[in-house]
Amino acid sequence: MVNIRIGILCCKKTPENILIHKYLTKKYNTYFLNPTEIELDLNKNESNINLILSRVERDYLQCGLKVLRYIEDNTNVKIINSSKSIEICQNKYLTYKVLKEYMPTSLLVSKENFQNIEYLIEEMDLKFPIVVKPVYGGYGNGVLKLDDMKDLKNIILKKYIINKKENKDLKNKTNKINKNDDKNNNYFINNNYFNGTIIQEYIPYKHDLRVFVINNKIVCVMERIPRNDWRANCSLGAETKLFHLREDIVDLVLKSIKKTNADIAGVDVLIDKENNPYILEINITPQFRNIIKYSNIPLEILKFIGNISGNN
Fold first, then answer.
1. Does residue 51 contact residue 30 with C-beta atoms inside 8 Å?
2. Domain regions of the chain by residue span
3. Distance (Å, whole) CA 42 – CA 70
4. What is the mean pLDDT of residues 179-187?
5. Considering the domain 105-201 in this protein, what is its CATH number?
6. 81 dihedral zone (left: phi>0; alpha: psi -120 to 50; beta)
7. How far apart (Å, rounded) are the C-alpha atoms in residues 231 and 239?
């Protein structure tokens, strides 16, 4: 057993986190660290942990960031996925600000500017259909494709006026945009009022890809093929297969990783019908229960830690 103590920073022992723990314990003393339970005390130093693998979940983001920043500022503990990279990648609009040249055109709508939505759309030269999504979110939840300004105004007003008033009776009386997608609409509407909303150019795509990157190296590329939905999330039933990336897309992905300073990430890439690639988002706590069919991600993480610790 190598004399390195590793902490997996997470609140939930998901199947992915348990698998990572199983592989790391083959070589290292490895522990789960719950950021909601950690006492920020330099004298305790969390059982003399040498390295932290951050797997902070979105629901516990602020607590996780607080712990990581404290450790970064006060210790020499190595952190895989820094607080800065997590802050950028968990916030879809911050990701856009950093990777604007690689991503579909996007704008941020908030409680301060939502009443100017028509002007903002025109100013950005966005054409319908457009995509709206929460600033924080995943698994395709709350991601909507809207066909016209009437639908957009309707959903934005629900979020920023009805949600603010917390008037459930009024909310129930409003028209549904799409009866089959009402659950998704409600997720979007009820997503934290203060977080803002992303309005994004819709890209008619022929390939939706998850690119898994570890230590600036692409370890696997998986295509997600949607079933009965325009979204290609595996959580929504998309089928998957291996995909070979062109060199220019490899370059695009690695440039994006460098700009966000991510050590381990799942990069979502769209390729449109003219073969133009776009970065859609970067998942800084990527799940891998589907891509593991094609690549042993926990083993790749173990190799990475061996490389950076000098214990191959």
1. no
2. 2-89, 105-201, 203-299
3. 9
4. 52
5. 3.30.1490.20
6. left
7. 12
- Of 105-114, 252-261, 289-298, the one with minimum mean pLDDT is 105-114
Closest CA to 56 of 76, 77, 75, 32: 32
C-alpha 303/C-alpha 312 separation (Å) is: 7
| 51-54 vs 106-109, strand pairing mode | unpaired
Q: Mean of the per-residue pLDDT values for the chain?
A: 87
Confidence of residue 235 (pLDDT cuts 50, 70, 90): confident
Name the strands in the sheet holding 51-54, side by side, starting at the edge strand that comes first in the sequence: 28-33, 2-9, 51-54, 78-80
203-299: CATH topology: D-amino Acid Aminotransferase; Chain A, domain 1 (3.30.470)
Q: What is the C-alpha R_g of the chain? A: 21
| pTM (predicted TM-score) | 0.88
Provide the residue type at 198 as one letter.
I
CATH topology of domain 2-89: Rossmann fold (3.40.50)
